[in-house]
Amino acid sequence: MGKIDIKDMDLFYGSFQALKNVNLEIEANKITAFIGPSGCGKSTLLKSLNRMNDLVEGCRIQGKILLDGQDIYAKSTDVNTLRKRVGMVFQKPNPFPMSIYDNIAYGPRTHGIHSKSKLDDIVEKSLRNAAIWDEVKDRLKKSALGMSGGQQQRLCIARALAVEPEVLLMDEPTSALDPISTSKIEDLAADLKKDYTIVMVTHNMQQAVRISDNTAFFLLGEMIEYNNTEKLFSIPSDKRTEDYITGRFG
Amino acid sequence: MKNWKEKGMQGVFLLAACASILAVALICIFLFANGIPAMKEIGFLDFLTGQTWRPGNNIYGILPFILGSIYVTAGAIIIGVPIGIFTSVFMAHYCPKKIYPVLKSATELLAGIPSVVYGFFGLVVIVPLVRDYINTHGIRGNGGNSMLAASIILGIMILPTIIGVTESNMRSVPEQYYEGSLALGATKERTIFRIVIPAAKSGVIAGVVLGIGRAIGETMAVIMVAGNQPQMPQGIFRGLRTMTTNIVMEMGYAADLHREALIATAVVLFVFILIINLCVSLLNRRNDND
């Protein structure tokens, strides 16, 4: 059993079927990459792992997604607790319009931690884990909107870490960043997998090769192939996967 | 030929633009030319801080009316702001799509109702309610015509201003903030009150300040429910008089210094409005810089 098990999952936006019979087992403490051309459903699948799809009107799911064996779409599931356990980093860095400190402290405060010393500890620890502490420790009270894009993205990772999630979802976290910031985020992800299960959507196949352990390839709402990253990229078993990774389309 | 036409039209546009500037300038000149000498004659300090208004004895102190305007406006803010903000939250984040157009046009209609109708509503509905309350609790009052009644009516009147501005500002808060907060496991309510409203803060404040401007300048609705006694305000169940109503009440029969003192009252009111508009434009400028 994986950390997350996706079983016979179909997803509809109104009458349009965005995901078709997806079966996938996401291993704990590994980086799993979702690749595929635009519109293949990889981001949609990612967003259904912490139920951010609930915000989309007309979105309907069949099948099961199990987190540690428990169905996250069951009636008894509390969405807010789920999202605390399954954190998310978005494509575009989205720090809140408040200070760096308050950005990080927002999550813990949400979940009932108000002691100043505890919050101080969490803020420092999260920023250290996101490898950004040294750059911001002298301006924690300054607005987060004054940071560079790469710093903002690492801040968002720190913010996600501050609520101590088990799984971290990353939706093309480097697509809006320059190469140096990108490599920092990649190093960070590789570093974080010892404590977290990471699922990452990426447009960039090199990125998947560089940092992921397992890769799933999606095409038109179907999961075509799922394998160890090295195997998938060296000896793809499906013709369509081969065409995609060799750049014949996409 | 074409050039001549173009120039001609340009002139027409310029003229039209000048009309409004001219109007403001003329009003300013009229107000200050008539009001300032009166203030001088009465004495600036005596005029602004005098607690007695007795035109028959040539005593002109407008402090009661300044306070009256401020109190009534404050009351309107206390009543109107929470309702307005909660309504905006509902409209921007909770309202089912089917109800939205109804709610939207209802709040817009609220802005279009003539103030005399508000006043009449206050006179027929609110004032009797206050009167009953006063009578059953044995409070001293003026038959229900009171600061409370005026505040309630004004609180309703400023709702459309506050709702319109607040809602549009809340809608312009980037969706990413909203999603970012939910993704951390925050509830929808927490997200709205801790992230969305603070992000829209300066817009919300601008809406409130606009509401203040509307409330402080309102005349007809207030005159019908406030009691209009020319005395220092003596509590929420007692009558009071505002600057605007003072002018209307006595303009018809005032002459000489009395008349000029009323114009001077308008000068003070005008300065209040100027300050409020200045606040709004400062807030808007800060908004644009963000």
From TrEMBL, chain A:
All residue ranges annotated as the ABC transporter domain in the record: 4-245
The protein's name: Phosphate ABC transporter ATP-binding protein
Organism for this UniProt entry: Candidatus Mediterraneibacter stercorigallinarum
Role this protein plays: Part of the ABC transporter complex PstSACB involved in phosphate import. Responsible for energy coupling to the transport system.
Protein location: Cell inner membrane
A single cellular component GO annotation: plasma membrane
Keyword tags: ATP-binding, Cell membrane, Membrane, Nucleotide-binding, Phosphate transport, Translocase, Transport
Keyword Transport: yes
Chief subcellular location: membrane
MF term (GO), any: ATP binding
Entry's Gene Ontology BP terms: phosphate ion transmembrane transport
Lipid bilayer topology: Peripheral membrane protein
Source taxon at top rank: Bacteria
Automatic annotation (TrEMBL), chain B:
Topological category with respect to the lipid bilayer: Multi-pass membrane protein
Transmembrane segments: 12-39, 59-89, 109-127, 147-166, 261-283
Matches recorded under PROSITE patterns: ABC_TM1, PROKAR_LIPOPROTEIN
InterPro entries to which the protein is assigned, alphabetical: MetI-like, MetI-like_sf, Phosphate_PstA, Phosphate_PstC, Phosphate_Transport_Permease
Domain of life: Bacteria
Alphabetical list of CDD domains matching this protein: TM_PBP2
Protein location: Cell membrane
Pfam families named in the record: BPD_transp_1
Keywords: Cell membrane, Membrane, Phosphate transport, Transmembrane, Transmembrane helix, Transport
Main subcellular location of this protein, as a coarse class: membrane
Entry keyword Transmembrane: yes
Positions of the ABC transmembrane type-1 domain: 66-280
Similarity comment text for this entry: Belongs to the binding-protein-dependent transport system permease family. CysTW subfamily.
NCBIfam families: 3a0107s02c, phosphate_pstC
Protein name stated in the entry: Phosphate ABC transporter permease subunit PstC
Organism: Sellimonas caecigallum
Gene: pstC
